[in-house]
Amino acid sequence: MKLEKRSRKELLELIGKLEEQIASLESETAVRGSSTGAKDALFELNIATVLDNALDAVIGADQAGRIVYWNPRAEHMFGWSKEEVLGLTLSETIIPSQYREAHRKGLEHFNQTGEGPVLNRRLEMTALRRDGTEFPVEMSVGPLKMGNFFLFSSFIQDITERKQVIEALKAAREAADKANKSKDQFLAQVSHELRTPLNG
Predict the structure, then answer these.
(1) pLDDT digit string (tens) for 71-92?
(2) N or C: which end of the chain has fewer CB within 10 A?
């Protein structure tokens, strides 16, 4: 009987110790889980901070072309606030009317094939501001697989100034070429006059 009592007492102590270890492991797992959750939240916060402070306009859209992300630079570039554009389509906001059908077909093609001619490339295109003015942009679009669906991230730069500088350089080159041609014609005329004897 004493053996049974002692065994029972030992078993109860052993069960108590096991319960303590289980509780300790559960607590440690919860701490690790919350630590992982905190790390994930910190990572997401860091990504959001980077995108919000990017020099490029950063726009996220779903497979239907609805805007799901719009950074402050996009607000400045296009003239729409984040609150105004979230849920609207790219066609309703920044794609000029003459390109909307091509955009719609491109989305449809991607949704059917998983491929698109403008994806993962740097392209020069025309974009539309809220006030209706069109302007040149350089853009890259990449698909991001999110479980069973895709999101598209677009990084966009306004290249209006670059285009103006290129046009100014082109005009200056044409003016210099024209001046050189006039100079060559003048020198040819003077040379001809010097070689021609004076008739008098």
Answers:
(1) 999 999 999 999 999 999 999 9
(2) C
Q: Give the count of domains, the chain.
A: 3
Task: Please give the residue range of the domain that contains residue 88.
Answer: 55-158
If asked whether residues 71 and 145 sit together in one domain, one would say: yes
Report pTM.
Answer: 0.66
DSSP output for the chain: -HHHHHHHHHHHHHHHHHHHHHHHHHHHHHHHHHHHHHHHHHHHHHHHHHHHT-SSEEEEEETT-BEEEE-HHHHHHHS--HHHHTTSBHHHHTS-GGGHHHHHHHHHHHHHHS--TTBTSEEEEEEE-TTS-EEEEEEEEEEEEETTEEEEEEEEEE-HHHHHHHHHHHHHHHHHHHHHHHHHHHHHHHHHHHHSPPP-
